[in-house]
Design a protein that fits this description.
- This protein is of the alpha+beta class.
- It folds into 3 domains: 196 residues, tricorn interacting facor f3 domain (Immunoglobulin-like, Sandwich), CATH 2.60.40.1730; 103 residues, Zincin-like (2-Layer Sandwich); 124 residues, Neutral Protease Domain 2 (Neutral Protease, domain 2, Orthogonal Bundle), CATH 1.10.390.
- It has 7 helices and 24 strands.
- Strands 6-5-9-3-2-13-16-15 form an 8-stranded mixed beta sheet, with no helix packed on it. Strands 1-21-22-20-19-18 form a 6-stranded mixed beta sheet. Strands 10-11-12-17-14 form a 5-stranded antiparallel beta sheet, with no helix packed on it.
- Strand 10 and strand 11 form a beta hairpin.
- The radius of gyration is 22 Å and the shape is globular.
- The two termini are 28 Å apart.
């Protein structure tokens, strides 16, 4: 992600939010117990839930331009990881549920706390049992405006809406286990009036029009964290093709942006060229298709939504993303999307490697040495706020702080200096291959680099990851 912050009204989902009591209801079968109402992440304790593992989300959503709202049915296939008497999903905002079933049978439910949808099936769910949850609901989804983390969730536009979800927001549009550690495959089936385009993650599997409504179906077969899911509805110019290496490539530009056909084609080709360049460094591209979407959503950042990044250039009419920005978001497909942090504190692994990818791209195509990029950041005075957070634990309100990006990239460069180019470039391929589709921590990152290089990296990690302040060179 690349963000430009602005002051907004705070909506806090974090330590201040209500904590639910997980005691079993009176008379409950003692062999079954409730799943935890949070995933245990210190930064966002209410996000995510315990007791089950989601395998697949099937989100069927119809958009109504008259009300700016949706009618939707989300079907979730999951597997119990304990004997469950009840379990929670995250579901936030004013959407009203009309029915909820577990395995085709009506289940009782209650909405509590900051974002909890507490579900009690009519019978306990045994550990290792697969089950399905089907939720029908409707309304106008909420937009989240957080004073430090920016805008996310369902963001209305004059001709539709955009859904972007980092760090939270998915729960404003569909019920979800909203933490990066519970990744799942997805199907989005999106319906809107035929003069509007509907876009999402993954591969386009079908398009059909009936009664003036056009439906598209998108599948993301590879595991995806909910914060990386996306939807865009509006009037878009769409280009389809393949990268030079043969990866299916779909890009779209918002008609309101005033982007010329030539620039739209340039964006399409550049998205593919950057991906092919990075595939040589980072290994096989981990998803079935690529591309990007330029939107006018007034949230003022780009986001590495899986397989197809979103670029909000609403303040720059007629503009397409720069090559450096594309290099940043495409690098995330390996670092952040395929390999996703275990905790939000580990987000430097996403942003540091993506920022370093910008430096590598600039060296290759713009003639600017990586060392010069490093030196420019290092020249920042020692009393600047850049040096205040701890890179590997910046704090909830600082997960998009410049330290996470620029000092994260500096840490990567100093790792390269510590282990040498040969082992460093081996690491850049081996790391995403070893953790493809999964999660990893900062500690995993350090130990993996040690195994690749046969070096003790405790001093590097202490200096560049675990300590505040400007390091001595």
């Amino acid at each position: 992600m690349r963000r430009a912050h602005r002051a907004v009204t705070a909506v806090t989902l974090g330590a201040a939010a209500a904590v639910l009591v997980t005691a079993a209801p009176a008379g409950a079968d003692a062999r079954f117990s409730p799943g935890a109402p949070g995933a245990g992440d210190p930064y966002f304790p209410d996000m995510g839930n315990g007791g089950y593992d989601v395998r697949h989300y099937d989100v069927r959503l119809k958009y109504d331009p008259e009300t700016k709202g949706i009618e939707a049915v989300t079907r979730i296939r999951a597997k119990a990881t304990q004997n469950l008497s009840r379990f929670n999903l995250d579901f936030l905002g004013p959407l009203k549920i009309s029915s909820l079933e577990v395995d085709g049978r009506d289940a009782s439910f209650e909405r509590t706390g900051a974002q909890e949808l507490e579900i009690t099936p009519d019978r306990g769910l045994r550990r290792n049992r697969s089950f399905t949850v089907t939720v029908a609901y409707a309304g106008v989804p909420q937009t989240i405006n957080d004073a430090t983390l920016g805008t996310s969730g369902w963001i209305p536009t004059p001709d539709g809406a955009v859904m972007v979800n980092q760090p939270f927001g998915a729960a404003t549009v569909y019920p979800v286990n909203d933490h990066p550690t519970d990744k799942a495959s997805y199907t989005f089936t999106l319906t809107a009036p035929k003069d509007l385009t509907t876009l999402s993650n993954g591969d386009l599997r079908g398009t059909w029009t009936r009664h003036g409504q056009t439906t598209t179906r998108w599948t993301m077969r590879d595991p995806m964290a909910s914060e990386l899911s996306m939807i865009a509805i509006g009037k878009y110019d769409v280009l389809k093709g393949r990268t030079g290496a043969g990866v299916p490539n779909l890009t779209a530009t918002d008609e309101r942006m005033g982007i010329t056909p030539a620039d739209a084609e340039k964006f399409h080709e550049l998205s593919g060229d950057v991906l092919d360049f990075q595939s040589k460094m980072y290994g096989r591209y981990p998803f079935g298709s690529t591309g990007g979407i330029v939107v006018k959503g007034d949230f003022h950042y780009a986001l590495e939504t899986q397989g197809r990044p979103v670029y909000d250039l609403g303040s720059r009419p007629g503009a397409i993303p720069s090559s450096g920005l594309i290099a940043h978001e495409q690098a995330h497909q390996w670092f952040g999307d395929s390999v996703t942090p275990e905790r939000w504190a580990d987000i430097w692994m996403n942003e540091g490697l993506a920022t370093y990818s910008e430096w590598l791209y600039a060296e290759k195509f713009d003639g600017k040495p990586v060392q010069k990029s490093f030196d420019e950041v290092y020249a920042t005075p020692a009393d600047d706020d850049l040096w205040t957070p701890i890179v590997s634990d910046p704090g909830r309100d600082n997960i998009f702080h410049g330290a996470v990006y620029d000092r994260g990239a500096m840490a990567v460069h100093m790792l390269r200096a510590a282990i040498g180019d040969r082992d460093f470039y081996r690491f850049l391929k081996a790391w995403p291959a070893a953790h493809e589709g999964g999660n990893a921590s900062t500690e995993d990152f350090v130990r993996f680099a040690e195994r690749i290089s046969h070096e003790n990296l405790d001093a590097w990690a202490k200096t560049w990851l675990y300590s505040p302040g400007k390091p001595e060179l």
